[in-house]
């Protein structure tokens, strides 16, 4: 559990349970990376993190390793650990894999979903829809991730779910970039997912896959345009 500790002028964060310090620290830094608070190519200095969060070196090292495993940080010999870069080439690699796997997940969800799966998907969609008009983009983003996970679970394919989790970690920053630079994608996501869920409910597997791939493609195109504009 993470506790704020700003009133006493102490560390920005303190941790109550020692055995989960590394996980909490990794989650906190991950959020900073995904939401752009730690820019690509920012150096993650072990000693600075130790002092900032008032923790020992061991959990910091574990947290940095966890970020590396998720593709959010890279380690360079003699240069330390850095926030992974973002770029058009990496985007193309990540999304060429993601579009296929997300489409397959929607197709399998339509084929194998149970009534319980359908209820979980609809609950997740209701939470997403409720945040559309909110000014809290982070809340919308998290609700979108929860909906994606509920569809992945409904596919009932452990290997696919594991692969999606891996590629999902790498795509998080790109997905948030799309919403932050093109807020109209929030509406597109809500409307697109509504159609996908309807196809899953009707067990129309092929249509669910096509709709999911179309939604991913729209996001991919927006992000690609953002990078090209920056260049």
Structural write-up:
The chain has 231 residues and is mostly helical. It folds into two domains: 82 residues, Orthogonal Bundle (Arc Repressor Mutant, subunit A); 143 residues, Up-down Bundle (Four Helix Bundle (Hemerythrin (Met), subunit A)), CATH 1.20.120.530. It contains nine helices and five strands, in the order E-E-H-E-H-H-E-E-H-H-H-H-H-H. The strands form two sheets. Strands 3-5-4 form a three-stranded antiparallel sheet. The N terminus is likely disordered.
Number of strands: 5
Rg, nearest Å:
19 Å
Class inferred from helices and paired strands: mainly alpha
- How many distinct domains? 2
**DSSP helix count?**
9
CATH architecture of the largest domain: Up-down Bundle
Topology (elements, then pairings):
Layout: E1 2-4, E2 13-15, H1 21-34, E3 43-44, H2 46-53, H3 57-69, E4 73-76, E5 80-83, H4 88-112, H5 115-130, H6 137-154, H7 158-181, H8 184-201, H9 205-230
Antiparallel strand pairs: 1-2, 3-5, 4-5
